[in-house]
Amino acid sequence: MKFFVDTAEIEPIRELAATGLLDGVTTNPSLIAKSGRDFMEVTREICEIVDGPVSAEVVALDHATMMKEAEILRKIADNVCIKVPLTVDGLKTCKALTGEGTMVNVTLCFSANQALLAAKAGASFISPFVGRHDDNGFDGMDLIEDIRLIYDNYDFATEILVASVRHTMHVLQAAKIGADVMTAPPKVIHDLFKHVLTEKGIEGFMADWAKTGQSIL
Ligand code: G3P
Q: In Å, what is the CA distance from 3 to each residue of 28, 68, 135, 162?
């Protein structure tokens, strides 16, 4: 499973990229607002840090203006992935852009039928929001299972990008279902490394090693 980080903050992206485990970045208008940075400038900076796809979202709601915005955004770098909302205009834009060889991430997906439409529109990624689904009394992971089944039934190449990930169990469940990608805030990715027994084990080994009086270097 590929790991994307869901943020527009440069330092956490640098830190995770340095682990060698980061495959891409997702941003959205809310994350750009939270960063306080200029959209174009921060997107360019992120694209220089990470080789994989960097999602940058259009803010227009009509197809013609989405295409104009996408034209500007995709010039930022070769690894920009244009993010469009799951609407009729968003999917028209998706179809046009992927037809020209531009990566597209279709966002704000809350049903398997929406995911089916996005795949038919040639989306590179579909972003079902599991956390927001859970918040509204549904099971976000049921949605991922349904999309996996449908995409496998028809051999769609669209990658399932599990988004709105709130905790490590979402990551585990997404991996068990066979999602292609997950995007999570930096804290959730850092939490994946942690286990109390790993920390306890290191403590014990360090204490015993100190008793030997030896050193490797
Ligand atoms: O990737 C989508 C994400 O940014 C939304 O997450 O936590 O605002 O639902 P959240």
A: 17, 29, 23, 10
How do strand 2-6 and strand 181-184 relate by DSSP bridges?
Answer: parallel
Q: How much distance in Å is there from the Cα of 165 to the middle of ligand 1?
A: 7
The preferred substitution site among 28, 31, 108 for testing ligand 1, maximizing ligand atoms within 8 Å of CB, is: 28
Query: Tens digit of pLDDT for each residue in 17-56?
Result: 999 999 999 999 999 999 999 999 999 999 999 999 999 9
- Which residue ranges have their beta carbon within 6 Å of ligand 1? 6, 26, 28, 129, 131-132, 163-164, 183
| Confidence band, pLDDT 50/70/90 cuts, at residue 156 | very high
**Are the C-beta atoms of residues 120 and 154 closer than 8 Å to each other?**
no
The predicted pLDDT at position 64 comes to 98
Give the chain's domains with CATH numbers: 2-212 (3.20.20.70)
24 near 46, Cβ under 8 Å? Answer: no
191 Cα–ligand 1 center, Å: 17
Helical H segments across the chain, by residue range: 10-17, 29-35, 39-49, 63-73, 88-99, 112-120, 130-135, 140-154, 168-177, 186-193, 196-212
50-52-58-59 Cα dihedral, nearest 10 degrees: -50
- What's the Cα-to-Cα distance from 81 to each of 43, 129, 146, rounded to whole Å? 11, 18, 25
